[in-house]
Amino acid sequence: MISVEELTKNYGPVRAVDNASFSVQAGETVGFLGPNGAGKTTTMRIMTGLFTPSSGDIKVDGYSILSNPLEVKQRIGYLPESAPVYLDMTVEGYLRFVCEIKKVPPRQRSEQIDKVVAECGLESVRTRTARKLSKGYRQRLGLAQALVGDPPVIILDEPTVGLDPTQTFEFRKLIQGLKGNRTVILSSHILPEVSMICDRVVIISKGKILAQDSPEALAQRLQSHSEFLLTVDGPEQEITADLESLQGIRDIRTVHHPVSGGVQFRVVADLENDPRDRMVRKILEKNHRLLELSVVTAGLEDVFLNLVTEEGGAV
């Protein structure tokens, strides 16, 4: 559906996007992640036809943003970080205006407005001017304008920035409602948000694409060791010494002493040498009680920090 091909964008001597390539399949929801100044917004603006690339190309549904810009724009709904609403227009009046500039056939405009108003939960404010809307409802209106015309691709640039927790929760539900029906690209600094919503992530830093995969697959590829939480009822020093003697154990340290009893340890082991059977046998041989054994999995935050620090590299 979307193919970003060796995309580069220069602003004088500054290279904002550096030979970036990635693809998004039809129906996917993809998170576009990177620190401030990484090139996310620039890439999105090129994708929507607002900026032209210095080199490379972006194709949407087979159409090039360079040679067929109108065909590309007709297939994209775009919500920038600040919702592009006219404050003196009513919700319905603004959406009717958007129908006109998107050239929705006149006979279909009322139906289109009814559809996006319902989809974005705007029924209760339909006749209200945008100036009187809360930040959350203005953002909903911004999403509604992106959905006008039923574009197959929706691009959302930091859509929950500035929303309170309740507004953020409700807006995330709206985005999740788009999944499967449309292809969605979502940029965000909120890593849990991306983990909850997106099927796949593309991580960019200093204009370069560092990784692209599902959050789970990225974590697995970057993980150089395995970690476990182990809670045992028994003498702390003795248990530590017993576990350190086992093959494949790299490190063991006490985390805390749970109120429920015992001692909780964090155990780091070789990735290719699963020590769980050996740990359990050793604990039972010493007549200690095993209260908990769980795997500690790397999350998207671990992946992100690993890649965008100086030590991180492309995968």
From TrEMBL:
Pfam hit, one: ABC_tran
GO MF annotation list: ATP binding; ATP hydrolysis activity
Domain of life of the native organism: Bacteria
Domain ABC transporter: 2-231
InterPro entries: AAA+_ATPase, ABC_transporter-like_ATP-bd, P-loop_NTPase
Keyword vocabulary terms for this entry: ATP-binding, Nucleotide-binding, Transport
Family, per entry: Belongs to the ABC transporter superfamily.
Protein name (database record): ABC transporter domain-containing protein
